[in-house]
TrEMBL record:
<feature type="transmembrane region" description="Helical">
    <location>
        <begin position="65"/>
        <end position="84"/>
    </location>
</feature>
<feature type="domain" description="PPM-type phosphatase">
    <location>
        <begin position="140"/>
        <end position="352"/>
    </location>
</feature>
<keyword id="KW-1133">Transmembrane helix</keyword>
<dbReference type="InterPro" id="IPR052016">
    <property type="entry name" value="Bact_Sigma-Reg"/>
</dbReference>
<dbReference type="GO" id="GO:0016791">
    <property type="term" value="F:phosphatase activity"/>
</dbReference>
<protein>
    <submittedName>
        <fullName>Serine/threonine-protein phosphatase</fullName>
    </submittedName>
</protein>
<dbReference type="InterPro" id="IPR036457">
    <property type="entry name" value="PPM-type-like_dom_sf"/>
</dbReference>
<keyword id="KW-0812">Transmembrane</keyword>
<dbReference type="InterPro" id="IPR001932">
    <property type="entry name" value="PPM-type_phosphatase-like_dom"/>
</dbReference>
<feature type="transmembrane region" description="Helical">
    <location>
        <begin position="40"/>
        <end position="58"/>
    </location>
</feature>
<feature type="region of interest" description="Disordered">
    <location>
        <begin position="257"/>
        <end position="283"/>
    </location>
</feature>
<keyword id="KW-0378">Hydrolase</keyword>
<feature type="transmembrane region" description="Helical">
    <location>
        <begin position="90"/>
        <end position="108"/>
    </location>
</feature>
<dbReference type="Pfam" id="PF07228">
    <property type="entry name" value="SpoIIE"/>
</dbReference>
<keyword id="KW-0472">Membrane</keyword>
<feature type="transmembrane region" description="Helical">
    <location>
        <begin position="12"/>
        <end position="34"/>
    </location>
</feature>
Amino acid sequence: MLGRRRKDGEGRGLRALWLELGIPLGVLLAAVVADSLLPRDIIITAVFAIAPFVASALTSPARTAAIGALSVVAVGVSALWNHDVGTAEWWIRLLGGVLFAVIAVLVARMRVRREQALQHMTVVAETAQRALLRGVPARVGSVGLAARYVSATEAALVGGDLYEVADTPYGVRVVIGDVRGKGLDAVHLASTVLAAFRRAAFVNRVLAGVTRDLDDAVSAVCGDEDFVTALVAEFRHDGTGAVVNCGHLPPLLLRSGRRPSRLDGAEPTPPLGLGGRPAEEPFDWPGGSRILLYTDGLVEARNRQGAFFPLDDHVAELCTGTVDEALDRLLGLLRAFSAGQGDDLALVLAERSRPVPGAEDQ
């Protein structure tokens, strides 16, 4: 397996090298052939300088210099069919080819330095984003878990949506939310919610107290028009649970062979940051059932005809296989349906293990 991966990597490297060198060499060869076939009074050797500039956009400075050297040699050799070796015009074209080759190498060096700086910044940003949005454990006691995040911004791993899981003395607590707006401000507000949750989930015995702490944290940093829709859930190992909904989409309770039910019995309170005081809604969680928490990037995705993603038509896909496999299938269906990811998307799928006969829940 390792040998195959190494061969695949070498194959991709060779293809990239042929692309980087083949295009500028092809441009140079085409220009040389054209110059040799044109009438003697039409000289286009200046076009040879295009090759090193093409190379400067594709390959390293050293390879750009090699292409530039070949273009200068081609200018010199062109005297054989243009019959002007040693003339002032020939020397001007030759020196011009050298100048253009040097400029192309400098352009290549600037491009490579910018790419290296961008790559460094990308690594730093990805590290910070991964620290912000951590992975979830595959299992906590009787609760199986899986989570997925899809950013609407191709260059970013995370945006304004958020999720977090905490294994607390009161049960497995999960928060999922959607920050109003996008960009760095949304990421900053999402980080505020996550930091507050990581503390509040452990110090508040009552789930509604967790959301009150989150609301206070958001209110302290957000602007007049900023808010966060959020849902906090608690999964207990005795087969019960509770949710507190702060202006968010209600989670789905999924049981194989049955229609999904939405856990939206309590009246949703205003989003975080608007001073709401939410109520806790308890629910029963039978063994083998699953609960899907999601943000509006799932149900508001549209196809090319403008229709919304029909989540209820695909809930059966969430009831089979592992929770990881179920979320991957759902995302595959979403990608096949939608014309493009228009909004950030966060998903958390939780499953309560079926109780073993004669044994107590953990």
